[in-house]
Amino acid sequence: MRIACVGGGPAGLYFSLLAKRRDPGHDITVFERSKANVTYGWGVTYGQSLLERLYANDPESAGEIERASLRWRDQVVHFKAERLVFAGGDAYNINRQRLLDILAVRAAGLGVNIVYDHEVPSAAQLGQADLIVAADGVNSQLRTESATFHSDIRLGRNKYIWLGTDKVFESFTFIFVRTDSGWVWAHAYGVDSSSSTFVVECSGQTWAHLGFPAMSSQEALAVLERLFKNYLGGHRLVGQVPGGAPAQWLNFKNVSNQSWHDGKIVLAGDSAHTTHFTVGLGTTLAIEDVIVLADNVLRDGATELALQSYETQRQAQLERVLSEAGCSGQWFENVDRYVGLTPNQFSVLLQARRSPLVRFLPPLLCYQLHQATESIAFLRELRSRMGPVAKVIYGRRRQAKGKPDRAATRTSFSKLPSRKNAD
Questions:
Q1: What is the pLDDT of residues 295-336, one digit of tens each?
Q2: What CATH number corresponds to the domain at position 18?
Q3: What is the pLDDT of residue 227?
Q4: Is residue 16 part of a domain?
Q5: Domain residues for 314?
Q6: 3-state secondary structure string across the chain
Q7: What pLDDT, in 10s, does the model give residues 24-43?
Q8: pLDDT tens digits, residue range 148-158?
């Protein structure tokens, strides 16, 4: 079988190595638009459950990934001059370029052909392929050229910029800073022994009032370094990976598709669905996509049955996590709703932001409910079951106002860090 993977990110590379490992007779080529050793972003996060799946599917690359990763448990919140620590489960961070290098070397060693600096704007260029895996990201050109996918793309309200720093954060860290123009916050986590990811986010209004629209990349970095100087400890922010373009302020793209396949073209990862970065599951879900896709192709070949089965399985598996990610993104779009709370109250609701109850109930009442039920197992279970009820009530209220129902379903109201399986 001739297989073309468009996109040399984790999804495209991992599918190619799985497919080649399971059937060495496949002729597989990965096309990546960027040059070799050039990527965007600094690091990704993942959890123990993904690591176990990696070992089950390809122990060789899994071992390399685990050895290259930083392991963390605690989550730290800085808010109103207080530092709060929340215990969580095992999670891992890895330098994105290192992850890609591991997957590329493994795939090439199995016989996959990887072509860098090669744009594929249309599936017509790949006419000889029996299967085309469109793993070309949130701005997928292969997805855009077909109306069959029935894509829905919505922009989030907040502004964010993906930066790096030479300060190593040993725990996943949230830093909230108050300015005269509003709140600005960072999501920071170490990715190797010398650097960390440092994502800065704020409302569109705060972003505009701080003057960022008129600033150059370097000017924006200087302002952000001043805002977060108490937490950077003299370290610098970095706005550009080697060989890459300067980081830009963005609005998160919420991408969904009714259908994930069109003929021999199949979507995977961010081209099929995006998951808000505040839950840190983008890379995890992309890799899980292609594991399921590879299983179905191995069983049924590049057939309609295989692609439809993959689509059905993954859409069902993602229903809950995408709902939780939507709640998380909306929580950060409404930070002003919670900043009047004490640091402990604020941080507890930050941890619980995947639940629709957090948005549906008044903040203080929501916190009190959490505290009142946390120590009693029966009440914790009852609390978790209130999520679907909140969704129905909230959805009816939105519909009464002429708005679409975006409330999340079947989520738990948990004290544990929401990035346990964190991107």
A1: 999 999 999 999 999 999 999 999 999 999 999 999 999 999
A2: 3.50.50.60
A3: 98
A4: yes
A5: 2-39+94-154+254-327
A6: CEEEEECCCHHHHHHHHHHHHHCCCCEEEEECCCCCCCCCCCEEEEEHHHHHHHHHHCHHHHHHHHHCCEEECCEEEEECCEEEEECCCCEEEEEHHHHHHHHHHHHHHHCCEEECCCCCCCHHHHCCCCEEEECCCCCCHHHHCCHHHCEEEEECCCEEEEEEECCCCCCEEEEEEEECCEEEEEEEEECCCCCEEEEEEECHHHHHHCCHHHCCHHHHHHHHHHHCHHHHCCCCEECCCCCCCCCCCECCEEEEECCCEECCEEECHHHCCCCCHHHCCHHHHHHHHHHHHHHHHHHHCCCHHHHHHHHHHHHHHHHHHHHHHHHHHHHHHCHHHCCCCCHHHHHHHHHCCCCHHHHHCCHHHHHHHHHHHCCCHHHHHHHHHHHHHHHHHHHHHHHHCCCCCCCCCCCCCCCCCCCCCCC
A7: 999 999 999 999 988 877 89
A8: 999 999 999 99
Residue type, 95: N
Report the mean per-residue pLDDT for the chain. Answer: 89
User: 27 in a domain, yes or no?
Assistant: yes
Asked if residue 386 is part of any domain, the answer here is no
**AA identity, residue 380:** R
Domain count, the chain: 2
pLDDT category at 398 given cuts 50, 70, 90 is: low
Q: Which of 300, 327, 354 is the last residue of a domain?
A: 327
The mean per-residue pLDDT over the stretch 352-376 comes to 82
How many C-beta neighbours within 10 Å does residue 155 have? 10
Determine the Cα–Cα distance for residues 202 and 109; give it in Å rounded to an integer. 44
Find out whether 257 and 272 touch, Cβ atoms under 8 Å. yes
Mean pLDDT of 199-203: 98
C-alpha dist (Å) from residue 356 to 279, 335, 362: 15, 15, 12
**Does residue 289 lie in a domain region?**
yes
Q: Which residues, listed in sequence order, are joined to residue 92 by a DSSP beta bridge?
A: 46, 71
Instruction: Specify whether 10 is located in the same domain as 144.
Output: yes
